[in-house]
Amino acid sequence: MTATMTDAPPPAAPKAGDAPQRSGRSLGQILVIVAGALLLVAAVRMVTGSNQLDSAGQVAAALGLAVPIGLAGLAGLWSERAGVVNIGLEGMMILGTFGAGWIGWQSSPWLGLLCGIGFGVIGGLVHAVATVTFGVDHIVSGVAVNLLALGATQYLAKLFFAGGKAAEAGGNPKQSPPADSLPDITIPGLSDGLASIEKHHWFLVSDLAGIIGGLVTDLSVVTILAVLLFIGSWWVLWRTPFGLRLRSCGENPTAAESLGVNVYRYKYAAVAVSGGLAGLGGAFLALVTSHTYLEGQTGGRGYIGLAAMIFGNWRPGGLAMGAGLFGYSDALQLRNGGVTVHALLLLLVVLLALLAGWKMYKKAMWQGVVSAVMAALVLVWYLLTDEVPSDFVGATPYVVTLLVLSLSAQRLRMPKADGMRYRKGQGK
């Protein structure tokens, strides 16, 4: 992403004989990677004896923490695919938490969910007016949205929750009264059967049972909605004419306009959808995670969602993997984190050793040596300790964010016109 505002580039003339470039990995490659990861995690669990590494409880906690991060990342993907950098995701999530908490306790959590989405859309439209219509720097506008959302919700919380019926129901200037719960889904029979298999701690079999069990036990309807939104976003953006036109606005808006695309309209639509998705992520925090609006409950998840989007190379599949990784690292704080993170050190040693071997095979000797040295240092840390300090466990999500972005930075390919100023009429 870039904060530099320049004019959009002129249309690039295609060369004769150019073939469309294929991006991403094949299904077979993805399955091989997933199988290898499962085998590696199962082996580490057996060696370390850390059965919480992939237990159903750990997976369920990771999923619950990954959903708001994934929705924030998906919001950023919609906006940036249309060429608008959205640093204001954190503010739009804050608006979503307040809207969901405000309406949720007074009526029903379903209406609260819709209100959270609506408040996020309002934040998205404010960002769209500033960046698309008036050409304000995208970073400046996003930071302004974050500050405005924080200040507005703090003021409104004091106005609506500090007195009257709200105060009698448990509200105060920093939180709303509790709202009713949204329904959860558990598959009868399957969940209990998987839990029984997991207790045997068999190699790979129990690991699979724990992972699947965490995905089918006490599953929130909003989580299912989030999964459907990921699939739907992929289909709309990559398999429909609307998505092709929207992505063309993020790649070369001048060329898109010359072909009859109303660039402003598509940018507005993308940023509005972005705000709604971020608001839904905030509503998840208010109605599913805590059942109440709390000041500061987003905890920087909007920024972590952006990191997950970048890790996913501006694609839904990679974004989902990044959100799952960050959610898993965040869940370590809740479930015996020190011991589990200590077991993950051994997993990190193996990954760094594999990375070192791959870099040396590719003749990148300096990078290979650095990876090998890091693997040796982490191995020494693992052998000399029995548990990771709690302070480090709390910082694990942010350490993972930095590591993932640094390791994935070389393969990133952002939309070409992302963050660039576009003025109507350039393509005529």
How would you describe the overall organization of this protein?
This protein is an all-alpha fold and 428 residues long. Helices cover 69% and strands 1% of the residues. It has helices at residues 27-48, 56-81, 89-106, 109-133, 138-161, 164-168, 190-198, 205-216, 221-239, 241-251, 253-258, 263-289, 301-311, 316-331, 337-361, 365-384, 390-408; strands at 184-185, 219-220. A two-stranded antiparallel sheet has the order 1-2. The radius of gyration is 23 Å and the shape is globular. Residues 1-23 have low confidence and may be disordered.
Strand content: under 5%
Could you estimate the helical fraction of the residues in percent?
A: 55-70%
Given helix and strand content, the structural type is: mainly alpha
Radius of gyration from the alpha-carbon trace, in angstroms: 23 Å
Continuous helix count: 17
Shape: globular
Mean pLDDT: 86
Order of helices and strands: HHHHHHEHHEHHHHHHHHH
